[in-house]
Amino acid sequence: MNIQQLEYALLVQKTASFSRAAFQSKLTQSAISQQIRSLEEEIGFPLFDRQSKPIRPTVDGQLFLEKANEIALGINQLKEFAATLSEEVKGAITVGIIPTLSPYLTPLFIGNLKKEYPDLNLNVREMVTADIIRGLMNRELNAGILATPIKTKLKLQFEAIFYEKFYLYVSPRNTYFNQSELPLELVHDQNLWLLKEGNCFSDQVSNLCGLAPELNETIPIHYTSNSIDSLRRIVDQTDGITFLPELATLNVPSEQEECIKEIEGAPRVREISLVYLKNEPKLHLAQSLVKLIKESVPKKMLTCDKKSLVKAEIVV
């Protein structure tokens, strides 16, 4: 028995297919089948019910694979821990970033990434909050960057990175376009465009405005999207209003900058944080990324002084 055989068996379990596992391993199907057959002969029982479609573990196989997963994870963590002892920012890391942040944040630091950390291989996945948490728990992600605070009973660690201000984006056709700032009370009576429910930014906007669920019933058109830019383009063609996070305002064309309006009163912000599991072996890589992000965003975003923090209602 060797770790490679265990990893092949775990891949078959994950893909529920010998052919897909072989493809992902860049082996022939017969080669990966032979490896698992050899493992089964050694342990004395079959790991998979080969008659089922899709392939699934036997009862004993399920128990064995649970332990095998612990061992494989431990070995990977040991390898990664050894890499941290040199304190080099080297290796691969996969990070999930929420859709209302990733398109605006990633371009800010990506140019300096290779200059600062030439041996760091970063894989960014644009994912909603629930999928980021699921990816962390399944060990598909090393870290996530999302809006906090969130409600959870899971053993997650959070590290605040910066605070992003909320702005209004107002159509030139809107009655209040010529005002430099607007009270939130006016938003209730306007043609308001929001992201889909369950998106953390949408939830924070609802909290910010005190929007009731029945407000949706008064909106004649429902547009389900996770894209802030899509909503901004709709507002451009209507007399509506939408909300923008601070980094998204940096991408607004100069001829449309007058559409960006301050919200009256104390600045309302969302907290952006790094999230990870307590025993994450690549935490030093994630924290190196955080350092680069803090150097890339406007300095005024690094503190929450004299700002009102808007909470999300995400529960995971």
UniProtKB/TrEMBL annotation:
Coiled coil: none annotated. The keyword Mitochondrion does not apply. GO terms for molecular function: DNA binding; DNA-binding transcription factor activity. One of its GO terms (cellular component) is cytosol. Keywords: DNA-binding, Transcription, Transcription regulation. InterPro entries: HTH-type_LysR_regulators (IPR050950), LysR_HTH_N (IPR000847), LysR_subst-bd (IPR005119), WH-like_DNA-bd_sf (IPR036388), WH_DNA-bd_sf (IPR036390). Residues 1-58 form the HTH lysR-type domain. The keyword Magnesium does not apply. It comes from the Bacteria. Belongs to the LysR transcriptional regulatory family. This is LysR family transcriptional regulator. It comes from Acidiluteibacter ferrifornacis.
